[in-house]
Design brief:
Elements (H helix, E strand, L loop, with lengths): L1 H19 L7 E9 L5 E6 L4 E6 L5 E4 L5 E5 L5 E4 L4 H4 L21 E5 L3 E5 L22 E12 L2 E11 L9 H27 L7
Antiparallel strand pairs: 1-10, 2-3, 3-8, 4-5, 4-9, 5-6, 6-7, 9-10
Helix pairs in contact: 1-3
């Protein structure tokens, strides 16, 4: 029982570290505004604040995401097959938030695609440098007051749907931290963690009260 109590308290201690390890930046909010032209069964959303795009294709069409040099980067086929082009520089650049990953000499945006199947779920999630601020050292020039919600820029990610051009359009905002500086996810988690700790204490006390006098617990 004591181990359970220690575990509950430990959750409080590690929760901030878990949130801080998140790849996205909670001070930024990247949003998808539209997919144009709209395609039934094709949805795109932002994940992890400003970190990733998630594309779901339940249509019968092939949706291809273009990389940073207009090359085919990834595609989700109508049967749910998800493939990534091993010749696309984006395949490697997207491994690092600021595009510092090494790109092999074999990557050539003008070369015919070399497709590698990675999934068959009809869903593809990838980090995209176009949807977030690309500097860790300097604030965006649009940001004059960190206490105010501020639009940083609009962005687009090009697609093709069965060979027809389409565009994901969105924007990026700066979001002020709350007064305590504690991330919202942690604020929501703390009551649950505390409640679990209290419940464990109650159970421990009841079990102790039922034990014969002098017996350790």
């Amino acid at each position: 029982m004591r181990r359970m109590l220690i575990l509950a308290l430990g959750l409080l201690a590690v929760a901030p570290a878990t949130v801080a390890a998140h790849e996205g930046n909670p001070n930024y909010e990247s949003r998808v505004l539209s997919v144009s032209p709209a395609v039934d069964g094709v949805r795109v959303q932002v994940a992890n604040y400003d970190d990733s795009l998630n594309l779901v294709n339940t249509s019968s069409k092939t949706v291809t995401v273009e990389g940073y040099e207009e090359e085919p980067y990834a595609r989700v086929q109508g049967d749910g097959t998800v493939q990534v082009n091993q010749k696309s520089p984006a395949t490697y650049l997207n491994d690092d938030r600021y595009g510092k990953a090494e790109v092999p000499a074999s990557a050539d945006p003008k070369a015919p695609p070399t497709w590698k199947t990675i999934d068959k779920t009809g869903r593809f999630t990838w980090h995209d440098h176009r949807i977030h601020w690309m500097s860790s050292a300097a604030d965006p020039p649009q940001l004059k007051d960190k206490d105010k919600r501020t639009r940083i820029f609009g962005w687009t990610v090009p697609l093709t749907v069965d060979g027809q051009r389409a565009t994901v359009s969105g924007d990026l905002f700066w979001k002020p931290s709350d007064d305590s500086g504690v991330p919202l996810a942690l604020l929501l988690a703390i009551p649950l963690i505390i409640g679990a700790g209290v419940a464990l204490l109650v159970v421990a006390r009841r079990r102790r009260d039922r034990r014969p006098a002098g017996e350790a617990w």
